[in-house]
Amino acid sequence: WLHAYENAVSFHFSNYFVAYLSEGTSKLAGAGFTEEKDNIRWDMSVVKPLSVEMPRSMVLVVTSWNIPMSRWLKTYVFRSAMKLGTFPAILVTYTASTLLHGLSFHLGAVLLSLGFITYVEHVLRKKLASIFSACILSRPCNPGCGHQHKKEYWVVALNLVFSFLAIFHLTYLGSMFDPGVDEHELDEGYAAIHTIQRWSELSWASHWVVFACWVFYRLIH
């Protein structure tokens, strides 16, 4: 698991490098700002590393990983597919993301797994927030939310549990992105056996945890 975490973090930082490079070049080209009267704000943001490395939820990880792409998918894919229902819309969105990233088994496996993880996390936390009237949703509540329990110790502790669970999922999903693999294999994309082998070494733990969370959600629903 330590090696898996190392691989995942290495992959994360390669994404941050590309994200900040694209952000910097965009600003140098004169893009990435908003103008309000005479004030110009250079507020373009591509990634939020702290929301990934110290996540509140997997939902926020996904939206913070590539902010422009996330917004585009939400606007043009997710909202259009919502007429099918929330879960089908999520699957359609992650399928579209897979195609845009370049159709390959390992990316498809990661992104579709993310779809299941984020959906189960969202509905479970929404249900628990309703039962306990607590601020434990996937996204931080607004200051004026109707929950009775906001900053009690057990609320903070429960949010921390979900944060550690998100780190667990990130480690599992990122374990296949091995920085030690040769460049030829990287150019062609990881073979399906590579993905299966990596996740088998971790006993398919993340998928089992998601399944257990889904069963728990169905029991309390």
UniProtKB/TrEMBL annotation:
Membrane association type: Multi-pass membrane protein
Keyword ATP-binding attached: no
Chief location: endoplasmic reticulum
Keywords attached to this entry: Acyltransferase, Endoplasmic reticulum, Membrane, Transferase, Transmembrane, Transmembrane helix
Top-rank lineage group of the source organism: Eukaryota
Subcellular location: Endoplasmic reticulum membrane
GO molecular function: palmitoleoyltransferase activity; Wnt-protein binding
Segments traversing the membrane: 76-97, 103-120, 153-172
GO CC aspect terms: endoplasmic reticulum membrane
Entry keyword annotation includes Endoplasmic reticulum: yes
GO BP annotations listed: lipid modification; Wnt protein secretion
Record protein name field: Porcupine O-acyltransferase
Organism: Pleuronectes platessa (European plaice)
Lineage: Eukaryota, Metazoa, Chordata, Craniata, Vertebrata
